[in-house]
Amino acid sequence: MLTSPARPTTRSSDAARHHIVFLLLERFTLMAYAAAVEPLRLANRVAGKPLYSWKLVSETGKAVSCSNGTQVSVSDGLGDIATDAMIMVCGGVDVQRATTPAILSWLRKRARHGNTIAGVCTGAWTLAKAGLLDGHRATIHWENHDALVEDFPEIDLTKSVFVIHGKRLTSAGGTAPLDMMLTLITNAEGADLAHAVADQMIYSSIRTNRDTQRLSIPARIGVRHPKLARVIEFMENHIEDPISPSDLANEVDMSTRQLERLFRRYLNRSPKRYYMELRLERARNLLMQTDMSVISVALATGFTSPSHFSKCYRAHYDTTPYRERGTHGSDEDDIEE
């Protein structure tokens, strides 16, 4: 079991200027949490004084298991904290189940008291569920982006690595919290300290809130062809309302046959097949990460016929949508007929 002191060990007993409370949700992502807390430790070490203090809490005050199975002990449960403390909600796998009424109530209370509240990785979903992202820009891990859009369409969701908007902060998980923390250190203590912390972590390029999470399309597919990248971008932006192959070809001044040859040459499949795989991947994310009905997922990914959706899903994933979800409802049963 990993343990953490309520306050970091430093070379000075002077009171820290900045205080962070990490709320660990069940099955939180260890990498994202580490990327958030380690810059604080190193900032204290480099500065030679306790600029930052932190403590770990959970709903019950008991140890929490992260997504890789490691248990992390905490120092406290949910309770009163100083109004100048920042709360960082660390989420991970199955965040909907980990987000309990007690946690939501505590976060809303702390928001009313004026605490700055951040969501790390899927912790943004918890903030959204508590109503704390209404009227704010926010981000979340790209894999959870579509699910958050479906559950909370009123949120101004971006695909940035992190977003700082007033007293609400969100980061996309993975190493993104590191960039957010380095930005916070820059804003509070200066760029020199942030750069020194980055050097300690062998981190040579600090990303900003203008940087996006995913690799560019050419980097992802391993092909640098501008027209191919543009077509794939059109596909990714039109999952719910698919564009016909002829319209896709027209968008890049090609014939349908030329587009077909382009996809066959570089991706070894037809544009239609590639588009279908994108839509099914989006459908699987929605099935796994939301409570949307299977019929709603089908419609959200451009399938007007639920039976056609089920047939395509089974052919690609070798299972049915309702089995993927692991639940049985009347609409799901209808799809399988």
Instruction: Say which CATH homologous superfamily of the largest domain is assigned.
Output: Class I glutamine amidotransferase (GATase) domain
Q: Which architecture of the largest domain does the CATH hierarchy give at level 2? A: 3-Layer(aba) Sandwich
Order of helices and strands: EHEEEEHHEHEHEEEHHHHHHHHHHH
- In total, the number of domains comes to 2
Helix tally? 16
The biggest sheet, with number of strands, parallel, antiparallel or mixed sense and barrel status, is: 6 strands, mixed
Name of the CATH first level of the largest domain: Alpha Beta
Structural class: alpha/beta
Strand order of the main beta sheet, please?
2-1-5-6-10-9
Between the first and last Cα atoms, what is the distance in angstroms?
Answer: 48 Å
Poorly predicted regions: 5-13, 327-337
Spatial shape: globular
> What is the number of beta strands?
10
DSSP helix fraction:
40-55%
Radius of gyration: 23 Å
Mean pLDDT: 87
Strand content: 5-15%
Write the layout of secondary structure elements.
Layout: E1 18-24, H1 30-47, E2 52-57, E3 64-65, E4 71-72, E5 86-90, H2 95-98, H3 101-112, E6 117-120, H4 123-129, E7 137-138, H5 142-151, E8 156-157, E9 162-165, E10 168-171, H6 176-189, H7 191-200, H8 217-221, H9 226-237, H10 245-251, H11 256-267, H12 271-289, H13 294-300, H14 306-317, H15 321-325, H16 330-336
Parallel strand pairs: 1-2, 1-5, 5-6, 6-10, 7-8
Antiparallel strand pairs: 3-4, 9-10
Helix pairs in contact: 1-6, 1-7, 5-12, 6-7
